[in-house]
Every structure is written in C-alpha cells, then in structure tokens.
Records
---
Amino acid sequence: MSLVAAELERHGIATVAIQLLRVAAEKVRPPRALLVPYRHGFPLGRPDAPELQHTVIEAALRMFEKTNAAKPQLSKFVEDSD
Amino acid sequence: MAELGDFSLKHRLFLKSYPWRRIDPVPRTELTRPLAECRLALVSTAGFVRPDQEDFDPSVRGGDPSWRAIASDTPVSSLVDTHRSETFDHRAMCQDPNLAFPIDRAHELVARGRIGSVNQQHLSFMGSITAPGRLIRDSAPAAARVLRKDEVDIALLVPV
C-alpha cells in the first residue's frame, strides 16, 4: 500500500496511509502515515462505528494540513477512552 | 497498533524476513488548496470487489498486483471480500466494509464540508503482496494516472 502511495505522490496526488504495523511504516516509509492502535482487519477501529471511523479519518486528514512536516511524516492516533 | 509480537510464530518469522521495499527518496505532494476544495479518492488493500467484477487471483505467485475501480455510488454493503490472507479476522470488515473501504464516510465528509468532493471512482487492491515488482512497475503507475486524470487531489489509503 505504501508503494502505491509513493506513486500517487509522484503523480501529484497527496496521500495519507492508515498504518496497522509499526515496522511496516518504519521500514517502507510512506510519505504520510497515521499509526492506529488497531489489529489487522480493523483499520478504522470498529465495524458499524461511523463516528469512530470519522475520528480516525479526521486525524489522517489533519496530516495534510501540517506544513513543514518531516519526510516521511508519521503520526500516532490515540483513541479517546471517554 | 500491531507489533510483531502480536502475530503467530509463523507470521513473525515471515514478517522478520519480509523484503520491505524502502521508499527513498520519499516523494511528497503538498496541498495547493484547502481540504474543503479537494477531491478525495480512496485506495484500499482489503481486496474488495463488486459482485460483477472478477475476484483477485489467489494463484498469482507473490500476490495479484491488479486493481479494481469501485464506483463511488457503489453500495458499500455490496462489496465482496476476496482477500486471501488468513492472518486476520475477516468478519468485521464483511459486516461493515466501511471499516476498510470507507465509501460512506467519504460522502459524509463532503456533506460536512470537510472535503470538496468524492472522486467518481476508488481503487481496490489486494494486500499481502510479497513480490511487488509488477505492482511498482505497472499497476501503481497506471492507477496513479487514472486518479490524476480524474483530477484527484488527495487519497486516503486503507490497509486491512
């Protein structure tokens, strides 16, 4: 997936990738990656939980708005327990 | 977040020896307009197909590098899981494909004014590609050209 992200970036499309496996993000280095605390099969949190899914996506979208970010840009998503 | 220790011994050994392809240099496109004006496409590696599309081919050695275009008005509940991996529980994403292919969430982002529009099509890939040569050489550039032609500004990539 990160390799597809890199190709999109080379074509002028800004990308952000949800990342489930820390080692993959560290080794492959996608341009922007949001590390989420979920296991494989649950990339946006939980099924039928649209607001949680939106919260994860919003965290990813905010990465686009961060200027002068490092390359690669990695952020960690922490689910609010409230 | 998954760590290596979360996996079975078999998969830990697989991941430890996995030939990760390091992206270097890291390409980066900056936004040229606000998100509220951007067009979004989704790229998922959950291996979903529409019922009228061919399944990804599990017999392709190293993983099927092809992709499927998923029209933006496709009912998300109609997506069919063809992911070949047995290393994760498929039930949740079959129950709610938005979990790995958030088409409904994308449309809601437009309704909320957070993004400008949703592209007419999204891209579905197979994950767990262990031999990504054809993906890098052929499939990914072709996919990028399609989204570029659609004037997509931003892409959200979701693995499974």
---
Amino acid sequence: MSNSIQVPVLAEVAAKGEFPEYLFWVGCAGAFDERYQKVTRAFVKLLHKAGVSYAVLGKEETCTGDPARRAGNEMLFQMQALTVIETLKAYEVKKVITCCPHCYNVFKNEYPDLGGNYEVIHHSVFLRKLVNEGKLVADPEIFSDKTIVFHDPCYLGRGNGEYEAPRAVIASLRSKTKEMPRNMSKALCCGAGGAQMFKEAEPGNKEVNAERTEEALATKADIVATACPFCMTMLTDGIKFRDKQDEVKNYDIAELLVMAMGL
Amino acid sequence: MVKQIVFVLALLITLGIFGYTARRIIGFFRLTRPFPLSQWKERILLTLEVAIGQSKIFRFPVIGFLHALVFWGFLVITLGSIEMVIDGVFGMERSMSSTGRFYDFVMASGDVMAYVIMISILIFMARRLFFTIKRFYGVEMQKKSKQDAIVALSFIFLLMVSLAGINLTYVHQHAENYKGIYPVSAGLSETLFTPGSNQFVLHEISWWVHILLIFAFANVLPYSKHFHVFTSVPNVFFSRLGPLGYLPNMESVTREVKLMMNPETAFAAAPAGEAPPSRFGVKDVEDVTWKNYLDSLACTECGRCTSVCPANITGKLLSPRKIFVDLRARMKEKGPGLVKDKSFDDGKALIGSYISAEELWACTTCNACAQECPVNINHPSLILDMRRYLVMEEAAAPASLNTMFANIENNGAPWQYPAEDRLKWTEGL
C-alpha cells in the first residue's frame, strides 16, 4: 500500500489559492457507511495513483437532497440543493466526480433546473478514462481465474444510459465475465432506489434484493460487482441472507481495480 | 346516387358521434395542468423511431414483431380507407389510382398486410383466449379489459376479412384491367372463384361491411383501452424528453424556498401570469398534467411495465399499469362533474379512492416501467407527484422517511451522523 495519502480538502487548498480540477463528491454513504467507506478509500487511491487534481468538501459536504426528493419532500430537497449550489459556487467548482449514481443523477440532471451547472462524471466513466489513458493498469493475473458479474445501478444505467463504462473497467481486469439474464436496460433494481433505502419495504412475498441476489448467484460468478453504494448494501445483505458470503464477494469496480493493481 | 346518399349519411353520423366524443375528451384535457413543450426536431425523430419504427415494442421480440406488422399494415391500409371515403362521397371507383406507382405500392402492401394481420390477430386472440400470459392479469385487469381486447381483435379481424373480400372480388371482376397490384388476392381469387362467375354482389357486400366497420370501430375505440390506436403516436411525440433519471423541478416550491432562504426577496411578486397552484403534487385528476392524462389514454394495458416492476415481481401492491388505468377511470368519473363546475367534489380522489399510499411507497423509481413502455408513458414521475402530495400536503410519509428527513435537516445526511465525521473515511489511508 502506498504510504499515507493526504486527501485534499477544498477549503484548505482554496485558502492557498489553489483550485483543483475536480470536486470529488463523496456522498453520505461514501462518508458514513462502513462498507462503502472502503470504496471511497479505494477510489481515492486510484485518483492519487493517476495523479488527478481533486479535492473533497469534507465537513462542508451535505446531502444533495436526492433521497428527500424521491420521498416526495420537494421542499427539503430544494433547500439542500440550493445550499449545495451556493457552496460549489463559492469554490468555483466546474467538474464533479462521484461514486454514487443517485448523487450523479441529481447533480447532472436536476441541479441545472436550480442554477447549478457542472460537468458531472460518475466514477465508472472516470475510471474508464484513466484506464484507457494507461494511467491505471491492472495486473492481468490477479482476476484471471475469477468470474465477475456486474449489476447495473438503475440511476447509472436506465436513468442515464451508462451501461458500458463499468463493464469496460471490469474488462480491463482480464477476468471472466458473466451477465445476468436481466442486464443493462432490462436490469432488475436492487430494491433500494426511490428512498427505499431509508424505509421498510411494503408487504409482499419477497424482498427485491433477494430476487436480484438469486439472479446474480445463479450465474455462479465469484464476484458480484456494483457501482452504487445502495446496490452494494442490498446485494451484500442478499448474499449474506443466502449464506453465500464465503464463496461470493460483492465489490465496487474501484475496489476491484485497486486489488488488480496491488495498491 | 342512392349509394352516395347512404354513404354520406353514414359518414355524417360517424363524424357526429366522433365529434361528441372528441369534445368530451377535450373538455377533460382542459381540466389538467400544463406540460411545457420544446425540442420539436427531437420529438419528430423520436416519433419516427419509437412510434413509426416500433423500436420499443421489439424489446419483446416475437410478439413485438407481430404487433409491428399489424401497425405497419394499418398505416398502408389506412391510405386505402381514405380512398374508399373519397370514392363513397363522390361516387367514384378507385379514385386514387391515378397516382400510378404509388398506388401500386399502397395496394400491393395493403393486400399482403391484410392477410398478415389476419394471421397475427388469430395469434393474438389465441393468446388472450387459450393461454395464460401473466402480464394480461392483475387487479386492474377487470372483465372489461378482456372484453375490450376481444372486441377490438374481432373488429380488426373482420376488417381484414372484408378487405380481402374487396380485393379478391375486384381482381376477379376486372380480370385484365384492374388498378393496382394484389400479390396475394390475385392468385387466391383464381382458386376461389369459378372463371366467368359474377362476384359483384360479394364485392359490394365486402365494400360496405369494410367501410361501416371502420366507422363503427372509430367510435368504439375511444371508449375502450384500444383508444391507443389514436393516442399512442401523439403520446410518443409528446414524450417527456431527457434522461429517465430526471425528475422535473417544482417551480412553485423553488419560489417558496428562495423566499425562506433570502429574506430580501420576500416581498417580490410572483411572476406575472402564473397562478399559485391550488396544491403541491397530485391528489386527483385536476392536478395531473395533460401529458399524464394522455398517457392514461395511450395505455393499452399490455402490462409490459408491470411485468418488469421490481415491487410487483416481489408481490407488492404496486402495479405501474394500474396507476394509469386508475387515472383514466377517475377522469371518466370526476371529469364530467368538473367540466360543469370547477369546484365539483364527489368526496373521492385518485389517491385514497383508487390508488393507495401503500402502492405509491412501494416504487423504487427504477424506471424499468418507463423504459419498457412501448408508447413512452412515464409512470415514475406521476408516482413521485403523488408522493409529493402525500408528504407536502398531508405530511403522510412513512415514519422511517420522516426520520430520514429530520436527519437531513439536522445533520445534512439521511443517517444520524454529524458533519464533523465526514472525513473519518480518510483515517488509515
């Protein structure tokens, strides 16, 4: 592991008169969810490895308001959104990278209605770019005997039409790959979208994540890859529920790349 | 001459009834809220791709292909129907035959498609009657849905049989000098009819049956789910554009939030010409946009949306199709009262009387329904507008969501973690 990475915080670097090219929007899950913190750390390692000019907001970051909007609380959403837009304006932020497809969607598609216009990049697209530029090169041996199946996050795939970037990142690992029967625009939701992440599911005969996990497990892949914090929670839970956590692992594409690079 | 008079009378009755229906529906549209439009070029391209090209119906390849054939067949056959109306009104025969090659093309493709549609309809009918196709069932699929389907399929089948009858007898009667090309009927008529026999009566019967069926069908359609024959192409044209993930902003809320956040603007007047909304979100039919209502009229209850809905698949109450079946039914119920009196209230509402909160909260906004809908209905945006009503007007969110709201308000995250901890993930890097 490369020793001690200092994560640049925007308020500190801006005080020195520096304005990094990208704001890395960590998101609530990326900052607080114990499992997803590992993804955030993995992604930051890749940013440093590739020498990307970036900073995070740190304590100045707040919720984008997306879960409130999806839960019908438009008032709260807009208050959050206008606050975030003000903060980004103060730092003259023009480019935003995020690992969360929900943050990505709200920044890219919905903030412009409120006056926030940025170039918004999901980490899958950013990592594909760095891989294509030769800045991140996976060791082809690490995953050569593993099979990876990718689960499309709704807000990356159907929501924004990005199906290829995460698959391209996985392809660079030189692993075997599988597809679930329902993939790309026909992918089944993990069950967490639309603020479901923050509430109990309505009565039914099955949990959505159980349905999706069974489909993933049926491919016999060793690794279920995702590119969304909520999908990760749902699929990790689903794999545990089926008691398969010893045989099948759930990783974000950034983590896979870090492993394949021995970082 | 008598034939012309009878024809014109039949046409006038048809147009009269259709006019009555159209006025009624336009009245319902007047009750709805605006849905701004722009990007006309994009809309034309989208219509060519999704409506004319049937691109989304092919997502279910086999049965989708049959539907596409029926649709494309209808397009050419409709040109022939227009000729029949001109012939009927002016007492002419084959009035469009002077268009030469074009006429040959229209008649030839219409002739082939008549038989293709006949076979497709028999397959559709068999699927409805003898097979159990899961997506044809559900709580919202009442007896009328099945009757509607059978009636429409029967109409189309008889339309094609009578069209074939016209072509077969026409070719037979004008052995060497008929206008247009009839690839199937020309050969078939030789085997069906004895050479030299007179099929004039059969031709007249076929002609009249065909045109009267069209007149009847046109007036039955608006009262059945197969109104989609008229509404689906416009519905695609007026699609909500942009990525599926996008949810439109509520301008009325933006004004209020800006007032709250910036006291200086507190006394600014609302933009001219903009009446304050009577309520936030959608509670009943008068709160939906005209596009939402058009969506409900364009829905032919095929159930592709519901068949891919994660909530529905796992046994929850939500069925995206039901949302639009309910909207259409509620408009039929409340619309006439509202047209007469804007403040009409029957004590019921779309939310509560038709759609339960439980259905609305089961949605994951995954957009699988909208992705699948062959006529570009957007289910999640209407579901979200109803959630907006529940939360902002009724404060009726599930308790756990209220906790999430409170967390965002208090510490800027949906979970109860303080902002001070936002860099904890960097420890150990």
